Amino acid sequence: MKFSIQRASFIKYLNDVQRAISSKTTIDILTGLKMDLSKDALTLTGSNSDISIETIISIADDNAALQIEQEGAVVLPARFFSEIVKKLPEQTMTIEINERFQATITSGSAEFTINGLNAEEYPHLPEIDSKDQLTVPGDILKQVISQTVIAVSNQESRPILTGIHLVIKNGELLAVATDSHRLSQRIIKLSGADDAVYDVIIPGKSLSELSKMISDSDENIEIQISENQALFILGNTSFYTRLLEGKYPDTERLIPKVSEITVDFNAVELLQSIERASLLSHEGRNNVVKLAINPSAQSVILSGNTPEVGNVEEELHFKNLEGSELEISFNPDYMKDALRSFGQSEITIAFTQPLRPFTIVPTEDKDNFVQLITPVRTF
After folding, report:
1. pLDDT tens digit string along 106-143?
2. pTM of the model
3. In angstroms, what CA-CA distances link 147 with 33, 217, 244?
4. Which of 50, 78, 161, 205 is most buried, by CB atoms within 10 Å?
């Protein structure tokens, strides 16, 4: 096996595949990068059992300038190999594999030799038996992931909550995540998916890695779903992820349908106020801030009392306020995550009772995006 390639282009492909490679795995060969060289392309594969990423570098890719001399396949130790490639002196590099799976990597006057493994011992990629294909614009999928993954649970004691629940039906994609303290739900229209029906749970960590791989040039992403795997195709790169098994909680019943108080804010202005209040709350044991709403006085006061450090109080600017008086306490970090997901929009926060969850929605599109936060009991 022997080929030469432009180093900068190779590193870009290598970085994507390395997202799936972990140094902590019970299968030793999965700490390696699989390279498979055919007569017209170089295929790179990485996997950690949960996710697998395969990318194809074609000889037609002018930026890569791939020159193939001899076909073959090998698995190289990913971490060492990556560090070597990134520190080579010249723009091009040549890799040659001998019959004992030793790789000689040359660039300019530098030459490295590292030991590899037989590629035939590498596990096969999952097979997706689905005939149906969905297409989602890359920027929309990236946005949906970022808006929902913030509410995914990190607690392995309830593994089903470490995933994002995706439901596709009636030409719509519903994505929802909750860690039982907060919830995020997003709905988007899918063109050409009127007949598609899916109900799957994808690990939040998998979708976070996928999101990092979606670039501005990825106009459309193809999705295929089988019984226990999902496949996302981004140009020449295939991203496989396992699905979580089990039934996701009925989150629809958690979202209040009516409210006693509503306040309209600018998301950025409110975020900045919460960030100021959390400077002190982070120093305390409880990490809680309080909102005091008084419609008759048309005032909303944000405050935090941290006995170890001091206290903070700020009168908030708002666009509209309706309802009755309320005092409610919450975790400012949950609020900051939620507010960042709205970008520059105007938002409406709807409250019911001091110990009941409250919702945050974009004022102009209240039906398709909602963040929900559970208050903190302070007495």
Report:
1. 999 999 999 999 999 999 998 887 767 888 999 999 99
2. 0.92
3. 32, 21, 20
4. 161
